[in-house]
Design goal:
single chain; extended
Length: about 1150
């Protein structure tokens, strides 16, 4: 037999036995533990370890923030972001299938699911659109960043990360998809490593990155989705500053409540819209100003709390049941219910749905069940199911129907006859010639009317003959067919004073009708559309039936439309008692005694018959009931004295508890008065035992008691303050600064919650606002009609609450930096689209730089550094982050779209930006250190404005503006450090104020049919490119060749007396020009043949010598370079050896020092 290998023993890791062993082990270790056995061996090592542990502990600490998350938190918003084709929809379908067992066909709008006992999730898919990316970045609590591993990172990923950094960075988890395209494992590993390192660079070291290997049946593998869902369910979220101070709602559906009649008259009128969603952030106040990104600012007309459509489990459970795994996706056609603007569509498959309406997948799964269900349906249900094959309505089929009167005539269409226009009918006569007959729509009307009249006469005759039979068969107040009846008309409600008289007559056992609607209810009175009931008299027929009971009908109609004037009955009719008015026992004819006789007759004609209501004792509830027994107490003198000083005729000091006590109220001896106050209090309680009832009711308040309560309350406050400052709680744990601040915040939160805990919900909403976590309905009026007409659920609709300061507009100063990946620098006065707070708007910034004294305007943004920008827009609090783009349209340019990022620095209504201005002038006259300057100013007023300003020449001589000259306009006198030349240029450096342009253009992308084609103000270059224009050229700005005239200076003239005293070396040696030529200059020098040979030989020798010197220099240079290379190699080797030698030396020294210290 073969020997079988024994299984290795696997130790138990859980269970009672293992726990018992662990307890014994630790107990033995504690008994025999040596405190010196595992301690630090050196003090240096101990110090390093302690310091490292403290550093790690401090790194975990954040600035404590108020966590305003309610007890029942709203769903966590999870945004699935990525470029097209990266697997966003597949991931959402897989996660929804994991949480709720639902299959989503189309993903539109937010999808809310219950993921756990205390957590709900809202999934949102982000489009590849700049507006959607900006909006979702402001509300997402968790971002699932989809990355196509087969392609790598795309620009949209980095753009979205930069948007997140500007608006508060939420939790981000990366998801790598399309890993099944890799065939080589080594390539897959290297790609994962490369993408992970880059992802960590952008987020932080250790950011979570998930890998989805492939797709199985249209979804990701269950185990990978399960791991991802577990990470999502246990993730904790830190409150972000902006969302922690603003209320906001992510709308999951909208409804249009505009009056249909108004829409019919004015299709483009402003709409009344309701938005539904979970409230997040802080409390939402009624009538609060809100902003919808893409639709503008609005005011809340009404806020109401609705039942939660996706509630958490009501009981604490170990795990969720199937019935608690809820999903709420109103725009995504979940469960056959789909919300579309102002309509709700419900699809009930299987009941009245044909087999062809099922999806192929459902047919494969439940094919046999569907066939059985269809076969079991009745005749009526089959008729309804067959009606689904109808392509057109009955009216459209009738209009398209044709009638051919003769075989050779053209067909007549019902639509042509209905329109009443002239149409053409082709007919053939006896000779075979085609003739064109003009057919009018009114030709057959007369004939039809005549035929109808004849038919009516025949019917009337028949009805006259059969009237008695019909009156016997029919019951109630009128015929069941042939009249427009409404059972749900509000006007058939019995009016006051009317009686419903129902007569029970014998009926046949069965009723026959052509439809279910014709079968009436025996106990109901059928009411006509005009509100009148059916006729009682059925003996009259046809034309005369309307004359029956004419007086009763008119009286009924008059009484129904008439209102009772209660004010006139109460104050004008003095003979009527309140009981008679309440019971209705009064006559309306007595209201006016001045009626004419005809009016009185009309009143009698329309007199109402009322029932006599029983007279009851009615209490006047507008006044409080009075107990006359309590009023007897006011006959006593003590009771009157207790309130005597509360009137203006009483003693003011006595009412306030004594004058001296009030004057010195701040310096009471609280310790000394305690016993006396208690004694006085006991006596007062004994004396006031009889009056305790009145005190409880608040009718009489004893001033002495009020004063004692005030002193006792203040004493308790001082005692508590003293205990907080000086008493040390030795029993409680010692809290550091961080823990103390957290405890204070938690205590304040608990105080706020307990303050409004027992209040009425309506009152609490008015004072505190609507709490986050509730499902609210927001009513907004005057919404543009384009918002409803162009609504697309794939684009998010946010409702952000605005604080009181954020509704104001002014000059906003920000610190801005051009993004390092943006290809071009930004230019002043070029429009930018800012995303700041909830808003997206376009404005025109001016860039500047602060040099310590002023903000100097910059024409362009600087490279690699921050600058200041000032623009007109909504006021935001300082340190609010923002990002800026130049366009939000989907342009296919392969550039980074985020232009700049920054934060708000200051808010000011006035902007102070200056730019440098140089004024130039030239001297007219020069007098030593004084000169007259022209061409700098044009008037003496301008000169007066710049008096005392510093000026300077090109050569560096400084001066100052003095006074304007009277005669030449614009010229002035100036003084300088030295004498200036007439050719000098004098310039003055001035600062010119620059005002930003008051331009604010909100991005209204949600009002467009194509949300990504919003076009704002274009750049100047774009306008010129579209119009094919060239940039204008200023002649003064063109570079011209500089022509400088050559200056001729006079020769230096030294006086002869001075020359005589100078030494010879310093005497000018400028020879005077000879008037006559010398003899040598006149004669030409001619060499002899021998001399020529000598000169030629010397030139040849010099040439040879120069050539040898050149070659020698070249060789010397080469030899020197080779020598330097050899020396460099030797130095490198020497340096390496020296480094190793030094390392060995210090290593040995370290070992020696460690041994000596041990």
């Amino acid at each position: 037999m073969e020997e079988r290998t024994q299984k290795a023993h696997i130790k138990k890791k859980a269970g009672k036995k293992v726990e018992r062993k662990k307890e014994n082990k630790f107990s033995n270790a504690k008994k025999s533990s040596n405190p010196k056995a595992f301690t630090f061996q050196s003090s240096g090592r101990a110090e390093k370890t302690i310091r490292r542990n403290n550093d790690l502990g401090e790194k975990k600490l954040h600035v404590p923030q108020v966590d305003r998350t309610p007890l029942e938190a709203p769903p966590v918003v999870i945004a699935v972001v990525g470029p097209p084709g990266s697997g966003k929809s597949t991931l959402i379908r897989s996660l929804v299938k994991r949480y709720t067992k639902h299959n989503l066909n189309d993903i539109k709008g937010p999808i809310t699911v219950v993921s756990g006992k205390k957590r709900r999730l809202t999934f949102m898919e982000c489009n590849n659109d700049m507006n959607s990316m900006i909006d979702i970045a402001k509300v997402a609590d968790l971002v699932l960043l989809m990355i196509d591993a087969s392609f790598g990172f795309e620009m949209e990923t980095f753009e979205f990360l930069n948007i997140l950094q500007s608006h508060g960075f939420p939790k981000v988890m990366g998801v790598l998809t399309h890993l099944d395209k890799f065939r080589n494992n080594k390539t897959l590993r290297t790609t994962k490593k490369r993408l992970k390192n880059r992802f960590w660079t952008e987020i932080y070291q250790g950011a979570k990155l998930f890998y989805l290997s492939g797709i199985i049946n249209g979804k990701y593998p269950n185990m990978e989705i399960q791991n991802l869902s577990r990470f999502i369910s246990v993730m904790k979220f830190r409150p972000l500053v902006w969302r922690n101070t603003h209320p906001y709602v992510v709308a999951d559906r909208i409804e249009d409540l505009t009056d249909p009649e108004l829409l019919h008259r004015k299709p483009k009128c402003d709409r009344t819209v309701t938005l539904y969603g979970y409230l997040r952030g802080t409390n939402l106040k009624p009538n609060m100003r809100i902003h919808i990104p893409g639709a503008g600012d609005h005011t809340l007309s009404d806020v109401s709390i609705l039942p939660d459509p996706c509630p958490l489990p009501d009981k604490e459970r170990k795990r969720l049941d199937e019935k608690n795994k809820l999903i709420y996706a109103p725009m995504s056609d979940v469960g056959g219910v789909m919300y579309d603007k102002d309509a709700v569509y419900i699809n009930v498959p299987g009941n009245f749905t044909k087999k062809s309406a099922y999806a192929p997948a459902e047919l494969q799964e439940n094919g046999e069940e569907v066939e059985e269900m269809i076969n079991q349906t009745g005749t009526g249900e089959k008729l309804v199911m067959n009606l689904q094959d109808a392509q057109d309505t009955l009216a459209s089929q009738l209009e398209d129907s044709e009638l051919r009167i003769f075989s050779g005539s053209a067909p007549v269409r019902a639509a042509d006859v209905k329109n009443g226009h002239i149409t053409e009918s082709l007919e053939e006569d006896e000779n075979g010639r085609q003739r064109r007959r003009a057919v009018f729509g009114d030709d057959n009307d007369d004939e039809d009317e005549d035929m109808d009249d004849d038919e009516d006469d025949d019917e009337d005759d028949e009805m006259m003959e059969d009237g008695e039979d019909e009156s016997d068969d029919d019951q109630d107040n009128g015929p069941r067919r042939g009249k427009a009846l409404s059972k749900f008309d509000t006007r058939n409600i019995p009016k006051k004073g009317e009686k419903d008289e129902i007569k029970d007559n014998d009926e046949p056992d069965y009723e026959f009708a052509e439809s279910d609607s014709d079968l009436g209810d025996d106990d109901e009175d059928m009411v006509n559309i005009d509100g009148r009931q059916g006729d009682d008299d059925e003996e009259l027929a046809g034309e005369l039936r309307w004359k029956a009971n004419l007086k009763e009908k008119a009286s009924t109609m008059f009484s129904n439309s008439r209102r009772t004037n209660l004010m006139s009955l109460i104050y004008n009719s003095l003979d009527l008692s309140p009981e008679a008015i309440v019971s209705g026992d009064y006559d309306d004819d007595d209201e006016n005694e001045e009626h004419t006789v005809e009016d009185e007759e009309e009143e009698e004609f329309f007199k109402l018959n009322r029932e006599a209501a029983p007279v009851t004792d009615i209490i006047d509830s507008t006044r409080d009931p009075i107990d006359f027994g309590e009023l007897e107490e006011w006959d006593e003198e003590d009771t009157l004295d207790s309130i005597r000083n509360r009137f203006i005729t009483g003693d003011l000091d006595a009412a306030q508890g004594g004058g001296e006590e009030e004057v010195f109220g701040d310096f009471e001896d609280l310790e000394g008065e305690g016993g006396e106050e208690e004694e006085v209090g006991d006596e007062a309680d004994e004396e006031g035992g009889k009056k305790s009832k009145r005190d409880k009711e608040g009718m009489i308040v004893d001033p002495a008691r009020v004063e004692r309560e005030r002193i006792a309350k203040r004493k308790a406050e001082l005692s508590k303050k003293f205990a907080e400052e000086y008493d040390d709680d030795e029993d409680g744990p010692k809290m550091d600064f961080y823990e103390q601040k957290k405890a204070e915040i938690e205590k304040q939160l608990e105080t706020n919650r307990s303050e409004f805990e027992n209040d009425d919900p309506h009152l609490r909403a008015l004072v505190e606002g609507y709490r986050p976590g509730s499902y609210v309905r927001l009513l907004i009026k005057n919404m543009p009609c384009e918002f409803v007409e162009n609504f697309d659920p794939k684009y998010p609709v946010l409702v952000g609450g605005l604080l009181t300061t954020e509704d104001q507009f002014g000059w906003v100063q920000v610190r801005i930096k051009r993004h390092r990946w943006h290809p071009k620098i930004l230019k002043t006065n070029d429009p930018l689209i800012f995303s700041m707070g909830w808003r997206r708007f376009q404005s025109i910034p001016i860039y500047s730089l602060n040099d310590g004294t002023r903000n100097r305007m910059l024409k362009y943004t600087p490279e690699h550094m921050h600058c200041l920008a000032t623009f007109y827009g909504p006021v935001q609090t300082p340190n609010t982050g923002f990002c800026a783009v130049q366009t939000v349209t989907d342009n296919k340019a392969a550039t980074f779209r985020i232009s700049a990022t920054g934060v708000v620095v200051d808010i000011s209504q006035s902007s102070e930006i200056v730019k440098k201005l140089k004024l130039t002038g030239t001297p007219v006259k020069v007098y030593k250190n004084t000169a007259f300057i022209k061409d700098m100013f044009t008037s003496s007023l301008e000169v007066a404005k710049f008096e005392g300003a510093n000026i300077r020449t090109v050569s560096g001589i400084r001066g100052q503006v003095k006074k304007a000259l009277p005669k030449p306009e614009g010229q002035f006198r100036a003084t300088f450090e030295d004498k200036v030349l007439m050719s000098d240029i004098v310039f003055l450096r001035a600062w010119y104020p620059v005002k930003p342009r008051k331009f604010y253009n909100p991005v209204t992308s949600l009002l467009l049919s194509s949300k990504s084609n919003w076009q704002g103000m274009r750049l100047t270059g774009q306008v010129r490119k579209d119009l094919e224009l060239h940039a204008p050229q200023n002649k003064d700005s063109i570079y011209k060749p500089i022509e400088r005239k050559e200056r001729r200076f006079n020769t230096l003239k030294v006086p002869k007396a001075l020359q005589a005293d100078l030494p010879f070396a310093n005497k000018p040696k400028v020879p005077t020009k000879a008037k006559k030529r010398s003899y040598l200059s006149k004669r030409a020098v001619v060499l002899e043949p021998e001399e020529k040979k000598i000169v030629t030989l010397m030139q040849q020798l010099n040439t040879l010598r120069n050539e040898k010197n050149r070659k020698r220099k070249i060789k010397d240079t080469e030899r020197r370079e080779n020598l330097e290379k050899k020396r460099a190699k030797i130095d490198a080797v020497t340096q390496q050896k020296t480094k190793e030698r030094r390392k060995d030396y210090f290593k040995k020294e370290q070992q020696k020092s460690s041994k000596s210290s041990a």
